């Protein structure tokens, strides 16, 4: 989660909403990514999607059943769907997202019968630091 | 929808689940894409995500509020999330997907309070041809 939080801080420095994600296989970091929809002109460029895409490319396959995903914020519906499609084994996330999250909020995607793969889910890891990063980012934007 | 169905047929010819998508702005086709997770080693490479990413890149921005998306199959949660993030104005889709769809099935994402943009939705366009393509693809795979 340390590396995911560092990636989130990098995103904030570039004016992107500070969310970071890391894909890990055993002890090996396969991919690290930060939220970048503006820089990439890509509305799908959330940290989770970018990390999953980079990990799949690095491993040369479209399923990551031996990989875990660490992300600083509760995934949205798009990212929860991507996590299921990628067959991620374990999901570790930081802050809750009551407004846009899709794991414990809104569609609660992994509990839906149309979800074909449910990772093990561990929430609240590094949540305080992640939430502080997000609060700081949005308060600076509102003030400017 | 004709071009989306053609793209779906191309996907089937490459051994990918036959789904195609087109992003349109007014009378102009901005992007056409076919489902390609295997070929691209990318679990997020559904037709909708690829078409949205290509259209955003072509237009140089991460919001497509003046664009419509045509897709041959009801979008899944990942793609419905991507459609909302991209601010797609109108969604036209073909066949229903009771097993994996997220518009009229499962999470019904656009009806969730955590969905921040709801496109106008028109279902069932070219549904017969789209469903026949999918049935043909899966029956060939089961037989082989």
Q: Which structural class do you get from the secondary structure elements of chain A?
A: alpha/beta
Average pLDDT level of chain A: 96
Specify the biggest β-sheet of chain A: 5 strands, mixed
Helix content estimate of chain A: 25-40%
Spell the H/E element sequence of chain A: HEEHHEHEEH
Note the gap between the termini of chain A. 30 Å
Active site (chains A, B): 48 (proton donor)
Pfam families (chains A, B): dCMP_cyt_deam_1
Domain CMP/dCMP-type deaminase (chains A, B): 1-104
Function (chains A, B): Catalyzes the deamination of adenosine to inosine at the wobble position 34 of tRNA(Arg2).
Textual characterization of the structure:
Two copies of one chain form a homodimer. Chain A has 144 residues and is α/β, with parallel strands linked by helices. Chain A contains five helices and five strands; from the N terminus they run αββααβαββα. Chain A has helices spanning 2-13, 37-40, 47-59, 77-85, 127-143; strands spanning 20-25, 28-34, 68-73, 90-95, 120-122. In chain A, helix 4 (77-85) links the parallel strand 3 and strand 4. The longest helix of chain A is centred in the last third of the chain and has 17 residues, at 127-143. The interface between A and B is large, with 45 and 45 residues.
